[in-house]
Structure formats: C-alpha cells, structure tokens
UniProtKB/TrEMBL annotation:
Stated name of the protein: TonB-dependent receptor
Subcellular location, principal: membrane
Topology of the protein relative to the lipid bilayer: Multi-pass membrane protein
Entry similarity comment: Belongs to the TonB-dependent receptor family.
The keyword Metal-binding is assigned to this record: no
Domain of life (superkingdom): Bacteria
Domain TonB-dependent receptor-like beta-barrel: 509-887
Domain TonB-dependent receptor plug stretches: 135-240
Length: 921
C-alpha cells in the first residue's frame, strides 16, 4: 500500500485536533436537564437555520429543517435563551434549569419590519430568508437553495435551480441545464450526495451526476458545501452538492401541494405537460403521539422541443480555410418521472429512525437530421468548389435513471449522540438498438461553399437538396448500456462537553463503501447494399416529409422507420463490428474504507473545527486489449491501492451580530473518470509505424489544498453582502497526452492515453449581495434585489514529446469561466409576484483540440440567458403562474481558437409555461 501525505503540516493538524480534544475532556458535573423547542413563523411554518443560543454557557444551536433545537444535560441555574433569525426580531426567554426536562413548545417570531407584526416565510422574501439563515449559521462556507426559493424561478430540474447561486454555473445540453460547476471547476471535480449517500452517475465514462435527471419538485433543499470538513466523504475539489429530501416533520401540520402546467416551445410548436404533487402526514404510532411521519412526492414532465445547429467540429486549416461542416436539425422529446417516499419514526425525544428513497427516470428521444459537407479543398467563406454531400440521420431513445435508498437511526443519550446509516444508489443509462448514423451520399463537382462565420450557411446548386441525387452508403447501429452502483455503511459518534472555556463537540466515525461501474457497447456496420441485392438505395426511397430547419434549406427528411425496416430485413450477426463491440466494454470496482476524527470548539464569538480524515481505496479495472496486427484479443486486468490523509481547519469569528469572518484550510480528493481508468488498449500499425490508444488504470487521484477567507454582513431585516477569496492548488492534474517517443513507447509514432500532470492553480473572488428594500412607504418596499459575481482564474501545464524533446504549454482548467454572474429583480405583493433573472458566464475552455497547438483549442463563448416568472395569488393556497425561459433567445456558440472560427452554433428558441399550484398553507 502506498500512502500519500498531503504535506507534513497535515500530520501537525491531526495532532492539534487530538490535543484540542484531550485538553477539553474535563468539564463540570451536569444535572440531567434537557431543553427543547421549535421555532416557527406566524403560520406555524417551521424555521430552519434559526440560531438558538445560551450566552452564559456559550452554547449555540442551529435549527434543522424541522425547526427543532435541543440542549442536553444543562447545568442547574438561570440562563437566557436567545433566538436570532434574519427577517425577525430577536427573541429572548428566561430559562430556569433544575433536574427536569423543559419542553418549550413552538416559539413564534415577530417580524423585523414595522409594516407587519409576524414573520411569514412564504414568497420570495421568505424563501431567501430561509436560505440566508442556514448559510449564516453554518460552520463552513455553504450556499443553500430551499424548495421555496427554487420555486421562485422557472427551473425544472436541480441543475437549473443551482445556477442561481453564488459561485455556481451549469453546463447545458440542448439548452437545458445538466451538469453543475462549482467555483469554475468542471462537474467531474464535484460530488453529489443524497442525504449523505453519494449518488451514482448514469453515464458510462463519468463520475459527474447529470442533475437534469432529478426534478426539483422532489426535494426540500439543496446545499452546496464549498469547504470540506473531515466528516464529509472525499470526492470533490470544488464542492459537494448535498440534496436533502423532504420530511413530514419539516412541517408542523399535514401538508399537500399540487402543480399542473403546460409548456410551449417556439421551434417545435408543441405543448409539453407537467404535473407534480407532494403529500405529508404526521401520525400516532407505537403509543406515541405524532411520532410517525410519511412524505410522498411524485412528478411527471414531458417536453417537446427542438434546436437548430451548424458546426465544423474544428475542421479548420487556418491557412487555406474550412475542410468540413455540418447542418443539424434536432427534434427532441424528453420525459421525466420522479418519485420519493420518506418515512420518519420518532419514539420519545432522543430516538430517530428514518428511511429516504428517491427514484428518477429521464427519457430522451432524439431525431437528428444532418447534412454533412466534405469540401474537396479547404475553402474560405464566399468561395465555391467541389464537395461530397452526406445526408445523415441519427435516431435514438436514451433512458437514464437514478435511484437512492438511505436507512438509518440517530440516538441521543445525555451528551452522547450516535448515528448508524446504510445507503445505496444505482444509476444506469440504456440506449437500445438505435441508428447511430444512416448516410446517403452524392458528389457535386462545383458550386458548393458557405457564407458567414459564426452561423455558416450552405451555398450549393439545387441538386444539394433533392432526394434523387443521394445514394445510401452505410448504416451504423449501436446498442449501449452503462450501470453504476454504490453501497455504503457509516457510523458516527459525538459527545458535547460544556466547560468554562467554551463548549467542545468531539466527533468520530467510519465509513465503508463499494462502487462498481460497468459499460457495454455493441456496434453494427451495414454497407455494400447493392451486393446484398437491395435495389432501394436512393434517398427518395427513405424520405418522409421536409426538414424544418430555419438556418438553411436541408431538403427532405430521412424516415427513421424505413431505416429500421431495412436493417430488420438483414441478419445482424453478419454485420457486427467485433473490435468496437468489445474494446469499449469494461468494469471498474472500487472499495473505499474511511475514518475520521474532528473537534468543534466554540467560545464567545469564536468557532473552530479541526480534524483529519483518512481514506484508503482498492481498485480493480477489467477490460480488453486488442492487437490489430495479430488480430487477437486478450484480457487486461489492473489492480491498484492508494491511501490519503485529508486534514482540515475551518474557523469563523463574529465581528458583531451582523458580521462574520470565515477562514478555512481543507483538502480535496477526486478520483479519475472511468473513461480515463478504462483498461482498453488498441495496438495498430499504419505505414509500418506503431500506434496505440489506451486508458490508464494506474492514474492517481487529483488532490487539492484549498484556502478560503471571507467576510459576510447580514442586514437586520433581510439581506447580505459578502466577499470570499479562495485558492486551490491541485496536484496530479489529468489530461490526454501522446507518450510516443517516451519509455516503453519510444518506437511508437502515436501512443495516446491519459496521464497525471503536475500542479494546477485556481483562485478567485466570490461576491454576493441580496437586499430587501424597506422604509420607503411605497411600492419600492416590494422590491427584492439579488446579485452575485464570481471571478476566477486558473493555470495548468500540459506536456507532449516532439522528436524526443519534452515540450509544454499552459492552459486554463477545462470548464473554468473567468466570470460567472447572476442578477435578479423581484417584486412581490400579497397578490402578485414577479421575478426577472439574468444568468451569465464568460467563455471557457471546452476541450484541448490539439495538445501541441493552442490555435485548435475549443472555447465555449460567453452566455447570458434571461428568464421570467410571474405569479398571481387567486386566493390563499392557489396561484397561477406564467414563465418564459430563455426570454432573450440566447444561442450556444463554441469556436476553435478565435471567435470567427465556428466549432458549433445552436439555437433553441423561447419556451413559455402556464401553470397552477394549489397548496394548503
């Protein structure tokens, strides 16, 4: 076993943590007196994130989603109970502690505004208040989106909801948010958990979880931890996205909500339905009153839309012009189904048993009509010449599913608390027998070219769009399946010690997890149809309708049913591609054992968390090697073992009741993608030169040292101003490289794989401002302003060999935008709620096109999208709403090297949504 120590200072941090704990083990004798209660608003809505403190004992609690607080075994005496919540007046109560438990019941808070008597956490202001209170009272640096806040924007999935938060942005697929980036780091560098269990990823080669699979209706909140503490599992460099499920105990009464809506997309002119419902109930069980909570949520959404695309794929010869481009028209149908069932059993005051479940299914049916233009000679815009034209069809139905199940118990005995929990998650992606490409070709001797730069438009003779000139050349069919499972069990134990120098919480735990990733692929190539006796080879024999393509004229559409019928008439086994069907099959198994110890110390205005986590991983990767020279397959199995120490120190200091300074040092860890770890190996010979392409199962994990420093100022009524500096030094940065001419590949002309590089640096500034206007005695008091800006920069070195010489160049980290920003303006009365939101991210490096030449790097251009939502309260508990998504019709654009050189342009149109929501507030 090889141990990786993240610097000698980290061992010192562990010693400090143990020393701090041991120094505080002795405390005064305590009476057996507990205090508990709940914090609510005027409508008995439970308030999470409220700070409940006893200044004399220097004890502080933050209410959870159920609004509860609990102090165990307080010493006898008279104390002050102080409650603080943004948007509410501070509340104080006198506590007289003897040896009997005190149940304070519900404590309702008064509003900090002179205009209303009580606080109510509904609408825009209430949603922001919930999120800010949890953020303010957290030990580390977190960002929160509550269910109520997610409902203030027209976001249909978790990914789109997160794009509104400071430091976060999304990567889109067909205009919909899919993957989340945290502080400029790519989605694969961030972890996603569901109630503490890491979610499995459905895609074959990735660890990143596609959050568009999960409807936002199923959740209570999403919390993004930007600092890592030892009790959190490793798996992120940028942050951990923690999805928290709803619970019946998160509300004081039985609850239900029903939503129905219809959407309309400009490009498809079709209606898309959506319905969702939530129901929760608290029951008597086991002789206990209100001890059993059941919460059920379900969601269905169907969306029909389209996009229009033109792309070059980077086929530029900068000296001579463009070599190839393609027109694409997409027709897409997506369906999301989500289910959640959560059960809580709370017999007595100190015992909890819970079950959390999630199932989400995402079906994506895509038909892509294409026209590929292969120019005989590279040409610039406005010049025409000879070309091969290919009418191409891709048609597939891809289904992704994610499920998770968590069962556990939390027990409290005096100042001791322990938790035992088991979790499992499964994800898969299934794309059954589908048309990967059905190609019809024709040759034109002259007159073919293009105009424009970012939007390329075809110029060609009339024959280019007539079906009769195209002849069927080949049909490629595919069938892919990927599955990932994750199982874990963990145990945590903690004890709180109260003494004159402040309270100390000692916490330790262990976790064991198993992860398995399996990928399978089959490929068939049907060609030489004339030799098979097939006479129907013209595109006119397979045409059906006309392609509705707004960027140009593509001509008749290829009918997918006719292609499937053609393939069905042939014997599949005669056309299977043996190499492609085996070389991409692999399995990776990971066993991870982890343990941690941490201490949390609080005194006066100080809070300090310190400790260390150790994780050990055993991995086995199984795949195939293929020698194309000898035409021989062989098994390839690689084992590895690695251990990591991950220390952390997180601190906060309250300058005042409104202002907080935060600082943190933490360590992060991200394991390589499964595509990078795949043991597939292909050896070929081209013109008597050896070439190889292979994965690298021996890759080391990426690790990072993370430094954070910032200040937050919270307004008395509602609002925040914050600035956070952060810096990350990343070791073992992974990139694709050519090892030809090096070591065992010294005689190779090409040896492409993935390698660990040296260091990469990421640093930035995160600014956030939220302000609820007040004191104007006019319509201005109904305004809520929200803005955030994240500035980042990064640098990493990539290397390659040229005639035996090692060369390198500096690149930015993939997916890192220099600027990410959100701006929203809200207006709300008791009847009307309006919100206009702008989301912006600057350009970023999408991929390294050619490791040796920066001119071929691919950049995604800056993107700003406007969204609008309006709500009308018809009566208490019933709202009508109207949303406009992509109000400014923002397209997606990527370019090769410089903006005039199109890599991909795609437009999506606007989407309009009309809906109704009924809730028993």
């Amino acid at each position: 076993m090889k141990l990786t120590y993240q610097k000698n200072t980290r061992r010192t941090l562990l010693a400090c943590a143990v020393g701090l704990a041991c120094a505080n083990l002795a405390g005064p004798a305590l009476a057996d007196a507990d205090v508990q209660g709940r914090i609510t608003d005027n409508r008995s809505n439970l308030l999470s994130g409220a700070e409940v403190s006893i200044p004399e004992l220097q004890l502080r609690r933050t209410t959870a989603a159920d609004g509860r607080f609990y102090f165990a075994q307080l010493p006898a005496g008279t104390y002050t109970l102080l409650i603080n919540y943004l948007g509410a007046m501070p509340e104080t109560k006198v506590l007289v502690i003897g040896d009997a438990e005190q149940r304070l019941g519900d404590i309702k808070l008064l509003s900090a505004s002179e205009a209303v008597e009580h606080i109510e956490v509904v609408g825009q202001s209430g949603a922001v208040s919930k999120a800010l209170n949890r953020q303010r009272n957290a030990g580390g640096i977190i960002t929160v989106a509550s269910k109520d806040e997610m409902g203030q924007f027209p976001d249909s999935n978790v990914s789109e909801a997160l794009q509104r938060l400071a430091g976060l942005s999304v990567e889109r697929d067909q205009g919909e948010g899919r993957f989340v980036r945290v502080r400029g780091l790519a989605p694969d560098y961030n972890a996603v958990t569901y109630n503490g269990t890491q979610l499995a990823a459905p895609e074959a080669g990735r660890r990143a979880v596609a959050l568009d699979v999960i409807p936002s209706d199923l959740l209570e909140s999403v919390e993004v931890n930007k600092t890592l503490t030892p009790d959190m599992p490793a798996g992120s460099l940028g942050g951990t996205v923690e999805i928290k499920s709803l619970s019946a105990f998160d509300r004081s009464n039985d609850f239900y909500s029903f939503t129905a809506e219809a959407g309309y997309n400009e490009l498809q002119s079709k209606t898309s339905p959506k319905v969702s419902g939530v129901f929760s109930k608290i029951l008597d069980a086991g002789g206990e009153t209100d001890s059993l909570g059941v919460a059920i949520a379900a969601s269905y959404a169907g969306r029909k839309f389209g996009s229009e695309n033109v792309e070059t794929g980077g086929s530029w010869d900068f000296d001579n012009g463009l070599e190839e481009f393609e027109l694409r028209d997409y027709s897409i149908e997506r369906e999301r189904i989500g289910l959640a069932l959560n059960v809580d059993y709370r017999p007595g005051n100190n015992n909890e048993y819970y079950l959390r479940s999630l199932y989400s299914r995402f079906s994506d049916t895509e038909t892509r009509q294409g026209l590929i233009v292969e120019l005989a000679d590279a040409l610039f815009a406005g010049v025409n010449g000879e070309a091969t034209l290919i009418r191409s069809l891709k048609q597939r139905e891809e289904t992704q599913s994610i499920s998770a199940l968590v069962v556990g118990t939390k027990q409290t005995a005096g100042n001791w608390e322990w938790l035992l929990e088991a979790g499992a998650s499964q994800a898969d992606e299934n794309t059954p027998f589908n048309i990967a490409a059905a190609d019809f070709e024709q040759e034109l001797d002259e007159g073919v070219g293009f105009t424009g730069s970012s939007i390329l438009r075809l110029t060609a003779p009339a024959e280019a769009i007539l079906a009769d000139g195209y002849e069927l050349k080949e049909v490629e069919m595919g069938d892919t399946y990927a599955k990932e499972t994750e199982r874990n069990i963990k145990f945590d134990v903690s004890r709180e010690i109260i003494q004159r120098h402040g309270s100390v919480l000692l916490k330790a735990g262990a976790k064991f997890s198993q992860r398995e990733k399996r990928a399978e692929e089959d490929v068939w190539l049907f060609e030489d149809f004339a030799d098979l006796g097939i006479n129907a080879l013209s595109l006119s024999d397979y045409a059906g309708g006309t392609v509705d393509y707004g960027l140009s004229n593509m001509g008749p559409a290829i009918n997918s049913g006719s292609i499937y019928q053609l393939v069905a008439s042939l014997n599949r086994d005669d056309f299977i591609d043996d190499v492609e069907s085996q070389i991409n099959d692999y399995q990776v198994d990971e066993d991870i054992s982890a343990a941690y110890f941490m201490a949390q110390w609080e005194r006066d205005n100080w809070q300090l968390i310190t400790g260390v986590r150790y994780e050990h991983e055993k991995r086995q990767a199984t795949g195939s090697r293929y020698d194309a020279i000898e035409e021989v397959f062989s098994a390839n199995r690689v084992n590895s073992s690695e251990g990591y120490w991950l220390p952390a120190v997180v601190g906060r200091y309250n300058l005042s009741e409104q202002s907080i300074v935060r600082a943190a040092f933490s360590t992060g860890l991200v394991r390589p993608n499964f595509e990078q770890l795949s043991p597939a190996f292909i050896l070929e010979e081209d013109d008597d030169e050896l070439e190889a392409a292979f994965g690298n199962p021996q890759l080391k994990a990426l690790t990072s040292d993370n430094f954070d420093l910032g200040i937050e100022h919270y307004a008395d009524k509602l609002g925040v101003l914050s600035a956070m500096l952060f810096y990350k030094q990343i070791d073992n940065f992974i990139y694709e490289a050519d090892l030809a001419g090096r070591g065992e590949y010294s005689s190779f002309a090409k040896a492409e794989t993935f390698v660990n590089g040296g260091k990469a640096d990421l640093y930035g500034l995160e600014l956030n401002a939220i302000h609820k206007l007040s004191g104007h005695d006019s319509w201005l008091d109904n305004l809520l302003l929200s803005a955030n800006l994240t500035l980042t920069d990064s640098a990493a070195d990539i290397e390659w060999f040229d005639d035996g010489a090692l060369l390198s160049r500096e690149v930015a980290l993939p997916s890192q935008s220099d600027k990410t920003a959100n701006l929203s303006l809200g207006y709300e009365t008791e009847v009307i709620s309006l919100r206009l939101a702008a989301n912006y991210k600057s350009k970023y490096l999408a991929e390294v096109g050619d490791v040796t030449e920066a001119a071929y790097d691919v950049y995604s251009d800056d993107h700003m999208q406007l969204d609008f939502t309006g709500k009308w309260t018809v009566r208490r508990g019933m709202q009508l709403y109207f949303n406009v998504i992509n109000l400014n019709d923002e397209p997606y654009y990527a370019y090769t090297g410089r903006k005039p050189y199109n890599f991909q342009y795609e437009q999506y149109g606007r989407t309009f949504v009309l809906g109704v929501q009924i809730t028993n507030w």
